[in-house]
Design a protein that fits this description.
heterodimer; A: 232 residues; alpha/beta; Rossmann fold; six-stranded mixed sheet; 7 helices; 28% strand; B: alpha+beta; 2 domains; nine-stranded mixed sheet; 13 strands
């Protein structure tokens, strides 16, 4: 399990323009995340969890301060370089699954590998491995519309981890799932974190998720209010 | 190769919407190919029949002869050059003497062109042989087309009085017996004309050894330099046909341009709706690491691929239709071609060419690609964080 530094934010601030009163989503956030962590950003709605996740995922840029992810300064990355960073090193899991509706389960999981330009043989093996991790090896020909919420989220996890990224960013991954499915999903992610050493960073206010976290970073009004590491 | 693969998956995955657009676009494909092939067929047929019955392999025109200027006709005839006379004797040229005259059919008076031609000629495919031989006892036999017969109220066996001006400027007259009628698609060898033996007309007009037009057979190299004679090739002789076909073709192009505009509008609309409905998907693609340029490429190619699908759909029902048309032709309503002034038969046979199919495909492909690309430029302005939430920034 790698302990190298993956994420470092320094005085990270994000302000959204909104008429006369701009909204400050993040204020001077200083954070370091290392390889292999299973960490979560917790806090109430509007506390800046998703904003921080988006900046770390190079989907957004800070207004001021700095965010360095895998050695890349997010605030200076071009669209193309940001896309390459996400493509090679970052996996995303979304609250609403965001599966591509016209693709089968297999094709959805295969998609990031197509972007990476992997050979068909390597792709096939990686996709089948990923589907096996999430327990959906028998549903590879199904379409997203034919899956339950729990199954859809497991496909999304398989898609996020199929390329064995350094970092997986999961935005409220259990928000649309019942307790049993949430439990299975979290177990799956913990197993992947353990077996592959993949770093997970969640954004959540779900107690079920929080109980599984090994590190809990609490955000309130865009500031880091608490950073708690559970003893091993 | 990933973009074409993904575009194909998306296109097929869109189901009925894709097939409906492809069907509408395929109508444009088939209509353009059918329409243009009709005009190509029309052009070919009219050119062929005009070459067969009038233009031959080109013509020498005497002096200032201009078929569209009646004032030049009577002064135009010249002595046939010795070389061309020898060629005519050998059946390798057809001299035609043209003189203006007045005829008096059924007590009326009307102008007509008197045209003298050798009844034994084999170059022009008109039944001039009926002017010679069997009509014994007829002083001056005349042959007219069915249109002339109808307009002048003449029929086979009728005698009509003809008056003309001789080479010396005096007027003379004679009765001509209509020995037969002929049918032709070429109005310019029929309307307002009476054909008679060349010798007879030369004698009547005092223009022995003279002609106005000398027609050569096809495939013979013209000798363009005879003093007092000008060689006219197809650029002049078939110019009217080309202009006519071009004018008709332009009119038809409005029809298929409208059809194509409708198809392109449908594609444009589909693309806009598609980008609007799929903004969450666009956000996901960007989040998964697809650069915006490739997302634009993907959506553009999806639209462009519609034209390929449309070509395939068009081939399914268009090929049998086009093959049927090529075999049976497009039958024109009775007399319609005549009323248009076209040298056409009862049906138009479309002529298809590889160039036509390739050009049509390229035009449709280019147009589809452009209308597919235009709406995708919106993607550049889309913030991935908003797109992931299904918002449009």
């Amino acid at each position: 399990m790698s302990r190298q530094e993956l994420i470092r934010t320094v005085n990270l601030t994000k302000i959204y323009p909104s008429g006369d009163q701009p909204i400050t989503a993040l204020r001077d956030v200083n954070l370091v995340l290392s390889g292999g962590e299973f960490a979560g950003l917790v806090g109430p709605s509007g506390s800046g969890k998703t904003t921080l996740l988006n900046i770390v995922g190079s989907l957004d840029t800070p207004t001021s301060g700095s965010a360095v992810v895998l050695g890349e300064k997010i605030e200076t990355l071009s669209h193309k370089k940001a896309a390459a960073l996400r493509n090679h090193h970052i996996g995303f899991i979304f609250q609403t699954f965001n599966l591509l509706p016209v693709y089968t389960v297999y094709e959805n999981v295969e998609f990031p590998l197509l972007l990476l330009g992997m050979t068909p043989t390597a792709r096939r093996k990686a996709v089948r491995d990923a589907l096996a991790w999430v327990g959906l090896a028998d549903r590879e020909k199904s379409r997203p519309a034919q899956l339950s919420g729990g199954q859809s989220q497991r496909v999304a996890i398989a898609r996020a981890v199929v390329k064995k990224p350094d970092l997986v960013l999961a935005d409220e991954p259990t928000a649309n799932l019942d307790a049993e499915n949430s439990h299975h999903i979290l177990e799956t992610m913990e197993a992947i974190n353990h077996d592959l050493g993949t770093t997970f960073l969640f954004s959540t206010h779900d107690d079920k998720v929080i109980r599984h976290l090994r590190r809990k970073i609490t955000l309130i009004d865009g500031r880091v209010a608490d950073d708690e590491i559970k003893p091993a | 190769m990933i973009i074409p693969k993904l575009a194909f998956r998306n296109l097929i995955g869109n189901g009925a919407k894709t097939w409906l657009n492809a069907l509408v676009l395929s109508l444009s494909f088939v209509a353009i190919i059918w329409g243009q092939s009709l005009f190509e067929g029309m052009d070919k047929e009219m050119s062929k029949v005009t070459i067969d019955q009038q233009a031959g392999g080109g013509q020498y025109w005497a002096g200032a002869y201009d078929p569209y200027d009646p004032l030049t006709i009577d002064d135009a005839p010249r002595t046939i050059p010795a070389d061309l006379a020898a060629a005519a004797s050998a059946g390798r040229a057809v001299p035609i003497l043209i003189v203006t005259g007045t005829i008096y059919p059924n007590g009326r008076m009307t102008t007509a062109l008197l045209k003298g031609v050798d009844p034994g000629q084999k170059i022009l495919k008109l039944p001039f042989g009926r002017l010679g031989g069997s009509e014994s006892g007829v002083n001056v036999p005349g042959l007219i087309g069915t249109r002339m017969a109808k307009s002048a109220g003449l029929k086979k066996g009728d005698t009509v009085t003809v008056r003309w001006r001789t080479a010396s400027g005096t007027f003379d007259a004679a009765d001509i017996e209509i020995v037969d009628l002929f049918e032709t698609q070429v109005q310019t060898v029929d309307v307002g004309q009476i054909w008679m033996p060349l010798d007879a007309l030369q004698k009547m007009t005092g223009r022995r050894g003279e002609a106005t037009v000398i027609t050569l057979p096809t495939g013979i190299e013209a000798e363009p330099s005879f003093p007092g004679w000008t060689f006219q090739g197809y650029d002049v002789l078939l110019k009217d046909i080309k202009n006519l076909v071009q004018a008709k073709s332009l009119g038809f192009s409005i029809f298929y341009t409208t059809l194509m505009a409708l198809a392109l509008l449908a594609i444009f609309n589909t693309q806009i709706l598609s980008i609007w409905h799929r903004r969450r998907e666009i956000g996901t693609l960007i989040a998964l690491g697809m650069p915006r340029g490739r997302v634009i490429g993907l959506f553009t190619l999806e639209g462009a691929m519609l034209s390929i699908l449309a070509a395939a759909v068009g081939a399914v029902y268009g090929l049998p239709l086009l093959i049927y048309m090529a075999r049976h032709g497009w039958v024109l309503p009775s007399g319609q071609a005549d009323s248009y002034g076209l040298a056409l038969g009862k049906a138009i046979y479309p002529a298809y060419s590889g160039g036509l199919v390739v050009a049509t495909t390229l035009i449709v492909l280019a147009a589809t690609t452009i209308v597919s690309f235009l709406p995708t430029r919106k993607i550049v302005t889309l913030k991935p964080t908003d797109a992931l939430k299904g918002k449009w920034s």
